[in-house]
Amino acid sequence: MKASIPTFVIDLKMKKIKLFSIFTIIFLSTFAQDNNYIKSRATGMSLAYGIPLYELPEGGRYKPYVFQYYYRMPLFIKNVKKTNLLLSIKPQYNPVLVSTKYQHEFGINVCFEASYLMSFTDIISIYAGSGPHYISYQSKRQAKGFIFSDNFILSWKHLLKNKPSFEMEIYSGIRHISNATLKRPNGGINNWMVGLSFGRVF
Fold first, then answer.
1. Exposure string over 136-155, b if 16+ CB within 10 A, otherwise e
2. Whether 45 and 9 share a structural domain
3. pLDDT per position in the chain (202 positions), as tens?
4. How far, in Å, CA of 49 to CA of 37, rounded?
5. Residue 67: which of 41, 95, 42, 43 has the closest Cα?
6. Domain count, the chain
7. 51 and 25 in a common domain
8. How many Å apart are CA 25 and CA 48, to the nearest integer?
């Protein structure tokens, strides 16, 4: 005569199977939502510091603190899986410390980001951008007034949570300001930028 399996053991196994199934569905559905990250729009704020690469001819170093708002949108939606081209618009105001005195900049940048979805919550991007700016500081190396701000940046974006969705971005790269020889001197000023962003993903 075969021994029968106790009912409570069967019930326990069924409960484990049900719990496993529920967690699997939740896990996969979360991944399915996150997979849209590279096709999502985002808006937020960022702060960056410009590390001077050299001393100015008149003495002192040019140290910008970049405060900017950003709006980012994908340029492609259909048939997008791992890669996309993103467009971002970034108005900014930047206090600049030169020696012991503060100057200022303001302007807007437009950037194109070549992006790759590393995982369901992580994007790595290389982007280049430029835009018109105004700087108040007159240097022997660079004339004040109208100028262009050119940026070449490597960034990592991480989706923090869903519903609502928020993101964090860490980025670094070269920033170059000059005026396309509209006014002399035009030697340009370069900084190595390190920045952090937080935003909302739609």
1. ebebebbbeeebbbbbebeb
2. no
3. 445 555 544 455 555 555 555 554 444 444 444 458 999 999 999 999 999 999 999 999 999 999 999 999 999 998 888 999 999 999 999 999 999 999 999 999 999 999 999 998 999 999 999 999 999 999 999 999 999 999 999 999 999 976 789 999 999 999 999 999 999 999 999 999 999 999 999 9
4. 27
5. 95
6. 2
7. no
8. 40
Give the structural domain span for 8.
Answer: 1-34
Tell me how long the chain is.
Answer: 202
Task: Identify residue 24 by its one-letter amino acid code.
Answer: T
Single-letter code of the amino acid located at 182: L
- Entry pTM: 0.81
Q: Are residues 4 and 56 in the same domain?
A: no
Say which amino acid occupies 16. K
At 24, give phi and psi (nearest 5°).
Answer: -65, -45
Nearest in space to 91 (alpha carbons), one of 112, 64, 115, 111: 111
End-to-end CA distance of the chain: 64
> Which residue stretches of the chain are H helix?
7-34
